[in-house]
Amino acid sequence: MSYVVISSFENIASGDLQAEGEAITIFPSEAPARAHFASRASALAAAVRNARASDADATFITWLMILHMPLEVGSVEEALEDLELVIEETDSVDDPFGELLVAYEGHRHEPAGDTDYPQKEALQALEAWLT
Known about the structure:
By secondary structure, the protein is of the alpha+beta class. 39% of the residues lie in helices and 29% in strands.
């Protein structure tokens, strides 16, 4: 089985702030996926601090998740196609990824402070991106 780590770093006013290749990474097992998840969480926190320094009034949203893929995937394109198929085949509108979700972390970073970003909203954003 494969594990996919997907992340998002967005400025509400201007859009995605991730460099190409940062949004999705594939791993052959859960342990390296979890290690990347932790590393990416730290990188996103640092990126928000840096972005806040240049735009103190901005609102940023960061989230990342690990998905356990139902089939082995060999490329990012294949993972995206499989996830799109999962969305098309699921009966659950609220949670199309169901048991595939292994771990999630999300934050809304506002000038007044940080709050948790709901998993449901991140999954909806991912679903919109995939379809």
